[in-house]
Design a protein that fits this description.
heterodimer, A: mainly alpha, two-stranded antiparallel ribbon, 14 helices, 2 strands, B: mainly alpha, ABC transporter involved in vitamin B12 uptake, BtuC
Chain lengths: ~375, ~325
């Protein structure tokens, strides 16, 4: 970056500026929510309690990581929730009470996840069906298939050893008291995602989402990059499914609505629908903020039925905040088409100057620095 | 409707996407009729046709509004909750009194109009993506519904139930109203300034603005109309069920199904291209599919699998063409669409 070492004061100022910028707003929101929870329920600050909170967030955060890569590549994945359901039911039915089957079935689930991702990706990229429709079809097909298989009822119960992944943890750890396995998995996955996003391949995912045509001219194999994003998201749904088996048990309603929760979390994290902008850590922070919001509403004795309303209002407010702030910064620049939902990055060659989109300003918010 | 008249370009006969939709519909009908015949039933019996047309009406209302919203480059995920809310509003206002029918309908439509306008204002004023804005308002309404109503409430007088139950010959009145609405919206898109602006803004917001359009108006109008047509679907459901139900919209999955029907009808999800009649064709494909599967007594869960596959397959068949058609936008002389 720059060769001038910033002074400590300026650095603090930069951090403060970032916090009120759209990119950092989610961290500020998360901090506010956590403080509010801690005020209402001082127990929350105990390490053990806090670890259990992270354990509860882990599946949503992992799904958000996967959804992040798909959204930043300019697509949608609506099939994640159904895939979680499918994986949960597969685990419940195939593992049974036999611990020795855990590993083969786990491999089978990962394979199934990869398969779903490849199907989503190839249908989107090669057949040019909008990903919204592809993954919507996949969502219906997976959910229908799972319910058909189970007859619509809860069936199967995987062995305890397998369920420990989602519900167990390491007891009596100094300072932290208790570390759930899912927290470790989440930490590893966040680190992996940050590393991956910084790699050339991770950067080409963002480039494809920003402008698929320029990315192609720059030598990116667009179809493969997008397919890879779908494979990542399907794998993350699989991992979330493994955690949820332990945490919530086997039921055809496990995973219901996770795709929208994940999209909400990602968007709360300042990731732009339509692709090309966003930071994976902020997406994870969005998932934390969402779950913290639920926890807060729980502690604040808000009637459970009103929670969805408050959730809706906060989503709109958070996104409006970042959109309006971004808009103000861009005002003097060329008019920009709003990244419409599911808007295909131009697959057509820019024939005339008029059909070429006004170029974005070229800055990515992807780099965390 | 523009037929196949477009000149052959790039060795290919360029079919209007609406024509392809109806060709697909005919294909589905032929396959369906053969399948139905194998179990010894007649696909073209009056009862079956009535069932299909009835099945079209509710989704048809929602999809007409959704078409406008998608054309303008947005999405509406709040429709299921607007449907439920309007069915409850109507049923509680009517409270079984025939004299209150007009009031009930008016209240339901006005509430929907307000919701739709708010959706539009959030999208245009606060610059929130339509997906998130309507997801948010949908959640807000859903919270209100489950807080206020514990179950089915209110009741609809028999005269109002009549609308959902009768028909002229095999054609239900509800379907006639739906098709009349489609005609009105078709004319709105074709003949009015705002209608043209919807296509312009959906095609490219930036170009539309540089051309001097007030880009907010068409977006707000599209969202407002969408909520109102969703309310009409809610009224129809209230008329069929006789009560207002807080879950009637979300159980039907009308948000995603209506989007699927619109895209199935050849409208670009990105906006700017598409037609109402294509959407009606898409809705008809769904209705025929459902009817055939009911006659064949397909497992209800497998129906979802079939629906999912058909949605993707049908859209895959003609997306290549639609993209190709979009290329012509700046080269053709007519600015009609």
């Amino acid at each position: 970056m720059s060769s001038i070492a910033p002074t400590a004061g300026r650095r603090i100022g930069d951090v403060a500026l970032t916090l009120i910028s759209p990119r950092g707003a989610v961290f500020l929101l998360l901090a506010l929510l956590l403080v509010a929870i801690a005020v209402l329920n001082p127990n929350f600050t105990e390490p053990g309690q806090f670890m259990r909170f992270i354990q509860r967030v882990a599946p949503i955060a992992i799904v958000a990581i996967g959804q992040y890569f798909v959204i930043v590549s300019g697509e949608f994945d609506l099939s994640m929730g159904s895939l979680i359901t499918a994986q949960v039911v597969i685990a419940g039915n195939l593992i049974g009470q036999d611990d020795s089957r855990s590993v083969p079935v786990l491999l089978l689930m990962l394979g199934f996840g990869v398969l779903v991702g490849i199907a989503n990706g190839l249908l989107t990229t090669l057949l040019k069906v909008p990903s919204f429709i592809v993954t919507l079809g996949m969502m219906l097909a997976l959910r229908g298939g799972v319910l058909f298989w189970t007859g619509g009822a809860a069936t199967g119960n995987p062995a305890d050893g397998f369920r420990q992944i989602g519900r167990g943890g390491i007891q009596d750890v100094p300072v932290l008291d208790y570390i759930p396995y899912s927290v470790i998995i989440l930490a590893v996955l966040i680190a992996a995602a940050v590393w991956f996003a910084k790699r050339p391949f991770g950067r080409s995912i963002i480039a494809v989402g920003d402008n698929a045509v320029t990315a192609r001219y720059a030598g990116v194999r667009v179809w493969w990059v997008k397919t890879a994003a779908f494979i990542i998201s399907s794998l993350s749904a699989t991992v979330a499914g493994v955690l949820l088996v332990g945490y919530a048990g086997v039921h055809p309603s496990v995973g219901l609505g996770y795709e929208f929760t994940a999209i909400t979390a990602v968007v709360l994290g300042g990731v732009v629908l339509g692709g090309g902008r966003g930071w994976v850590v902020a997406a994870v922070a969005g998932a934390f903020a969402l779950e913290a919001l639920f926890t807060l509403l729980n502690f604040a004795d808000v009637p459970s039925t009103m929670r969805t309303s408050i959730q809706g209002a906060i989503i709109i407010a958070a996104v409006a905040y970042s959109a309006v702030t971004f808009g103000r910064r861009r005002r003097e620049r060329a008019p920009q088409t709003s990244p419409g939902t599911g808007k295909e990055p131009d697959r057509i060659e820019p024939v005339s100057p008029a059909s070429a989109r006004p170029t974005p300003d070229g800055t990515h918010t992807s780099n965390g620095g | 409707m523009t037929a196949t008249a477009a000149p052959a370009r790039r060795r290919r006969i360029r079919l209007d996407s609406t024509v392809i939709v109806y060709l697909a519909l005919i294909g589905v009908i032929i396959v369906g009729a053969i399948l139905v015949a194998t179990v010894g039933r007649n696909f073209f019996s009056l009862g079956n046709i009535r069932d299909i047309l009835t099945g079209m009406s509710v989704l048809g209302f929602v999809a007409i509004g959704q078409t406008l919203v998608i054309l303008v480059g947005s999405l509406d995920l709040s429709v299921p909750y607007v449907i439920s809310l309007s069915s409850l509003m109507a049923a509680t206002t009517m409270a079984g009194q025939p004299g209150n029918i007009a009031a009930g309908v008016l209240v339901a439509l006005l509430v929907a109009l307000v919701i739709g306008t708010i959706n539009g204002l959030i999208v245009t004023g606060l610059k929130v993506n339509g997906f998130i804005a309507t997801l948010g308002t949908g959640l807000i309404i859903s919270g209100y519904l489950s807080t206020t109503y514990q179950g089915s409430t209110g009741s609809v007088p028999a005269q109002f139930q009549f609308i959902g139950a009768t028909g002229i010959g095999p054609v239900p009145i509800s379907t006639i109203i739906m098709l009349a609405l489609a005609t009105v919206v078709f004319l709105f898109l074709r003949k009015t300034r705002t209608g043209h602006h919807i296509y312009a803004v959906g095609g490219s917001l930036g170009v539309a603005r540089l051309s001097g359009l007030r880009t907010a108006t068409p977006i707000i109008v599209a969202h407002a109309i969408c909520s109102v047509t969703a309310a009409l679907a809610g009224l129809l459901l209230a008329s069929r069920l006789g009560v207002g139900t807080p879950t009637v919209g979300s159980q039907g999955g009308y948000d995603l199904l209506s989007i699927a029907a619109v895209v199935l009808g050849g409208t670009l999800l990105a906006g700017g291209r598409g037609s109402i009649w294509g959407t009606i064709g898409g809705v008809a494909i769904f209705a025929v599919l459902d009817s055939v599967m009911s006659v064949l007594q397909v497992n209800p869960f497998l129906k979802d699998v079939v629906r999912g596959i058909v949605i993707v397959a049908a859209v895959a068949i003609y997306t290549g063409r639609v993209v190709l058609e979009r290329r012509a936008r700046f080269s053709t002389k007519e600015v009609r669409r």
